[in-house]
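Recap from last week: sequence in, structure out.
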Amino acid sequence: MHAVNHTGLSQFLLLGLSEDPKVQPILFGLFLSMYLVTVLGNMLIILVTAWDTHLHTPMYFFLCNLSFVDLGFISTTVPKMLMNIQKQNKDISYMECLTQVYFFIIFSGMDNFLLTVMAYDRFVAICHPLKYIHIMNPQLCGLLVLISWLIITCVSLIHILLMMQLNFSTSTEISHFFCELGQVLKVANSETLINNIFLYVAIVLMVFFPVCGILFSYFQIVSSLMRIFSTTSRYKAFSTCLSHLCVVSLFYGTGLGVYFSSEVIHSSQVKSVASVMYTVVTPMLNPFIYCLRNKDVKGALGRLFSRAGYFFVKHSLEK
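Predicted structure tokens:
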């Protein structure tokens, strides 16, 4: 095949999760359902945190941003896969592939940064409760989110600029259901040393430092809680961290699962199925974790649905 790197000439073939025609309708229904549930759940979190004044606090400001990022995260990969299943083809253009890589890096990186910032928020709330309002002021919260967006946007842009220097064969097959950076670099026809070096640098920046920040925050939290003599007070303070801990465990647990499965199992189909866990399942479950384990969110949702039901009944009676 002729190696090119021109946007109008190159296309890739996404092999997806299965090539069995009988499985395609099942995959379409399953992923469409998961996508709709994810959109509904995260939109509800965004709506309720914006509408309910009781949730206008730093913790829920970050949660609202996390829900927005999770919406972008799943929307980067699943709609294209659903479209390909529906049209019964595997094509993705060069520009579409670059776009997927660009936004996937942005949203996955923002997930890491926001989880770290949320851990810092819990650290300040538990370890420095009297200074919490002054430390976690709206200006600092907005600045932390803005800096995170700027850093990850620059990192993603550099990845894309480096990828644009690579050559690919036309109709190159990618053993995945979306254009994942590592998989795309594997099928390049030109030298990818610089790309791989920057990939490792980005992993340190986007994964290692955030994980260290989360571990440090929780080390300080646990140390502070151990100095509280009352078991009830200790549990009450730690309970504010449980939802965040569940989301962190789910996100990094599934990510590590994908990494170790790729190291141990060399089947591309198994790796793709493992990737579904952190690209699709995690964004879908995050809203449910915060709704089921958080009394404030459950209360706000109850007030929102009650208000909506009241207006619906009132509107029906007026008719």
